[in-house]
Every structure is written in structure tokens, then in C-alpha cells.
Amino acid sequence: MSVSYLFEAERGLLEKGPEIIVAIRKSDRGTVEQILAEDPNQINSVDFVTGQNAAMLCVSGRMPKLSAEVLQHAHALDLRHLDRFGHDLLDVAGLTGSEELVDLVLEVYERSGKHLLNNWPDEPSVT
Questions:
Q1: Inside any domain, residue 127
Q2: What does the pLDDT read at residue 111?
Q3: pLDDT single digits (tens) 44-101
Q4: What is the count of structural domains for the chain?
Q5: What Å distances lie between residue 96 and 19, 52, 63, 109, 122, CA to CA?
Q6: Lower CB count within 10 Å: N or C terminus of the chain?
Q7: To 10 degrees, the CA torsion angle through 50, 52, 54, 59?
């Protein structure tokens, strides 16, 4: 955890922000599920400290069960979102060192963001 993140926590700022972000910080799975059931677009809510969206925050927190729940709403997720450090969701998963989280995120990209992983035509063109 970074020093600035600890400083923000000490000042009580981590209790502020979008409701889903606060719920993820508290590992409150019930609240996260309720928020996403009501509005799947809340998956794109951003943590003001890290710049991570809800999915990235779960993954970076190494919370596989909560991440799996949140990523069920990946159809609404902006997979091009970058955090304050220039990382996308796949980068964040890789930085955790968790094969389980990387596999979970790769499944999302295969379902919803194949064009981001394989940004080339299926058939090579002959000219």
C-alpha cells in the first residue's frame, strides 16, 4: 500500500467517494452486489485516490470472490479505462501476481474485449 494511500486513509478520505467504491474498500460484497444489480454501469465508478474503476479496485485488492462478482457485469465495463498510473484492468491483474485473477480478467477480455487483445483482422489480407 502506498504512503499516500495510507495518508488518505488516516484523514478519513477513503470513506468518501462513490458508494460502490466505499463498499469495495470495506469488502462489503452484499452492498456491491446490490449496487450492481440496480445499475451495472456503477462498475465504471472511479476511486479518486487511485483512478481505478470498481473492477480494477477489486482486482488490485486481491479479492477473487468479489472480483468475480463485479466482473459478472463486465458487459457494462469500460475496458479501455486507465488508472492514475496508466494501467488497464489486465495490467492491474498482472501486477497482483495472482494467476486466478489474471485468468478471471482474461475471460472478461475474451468475452467483452477481444478486439482489445487481438487488434488485427482474423484473416490476413493478401495484397
A1: no
A2: 87
A3: 999 998 999 999 999 999 999 999 999 999 999 999 999 999 999 999 999 999 999 9
A4: 1
A5: 24, 14, 10, 17, 31
A6: C
A7: -90
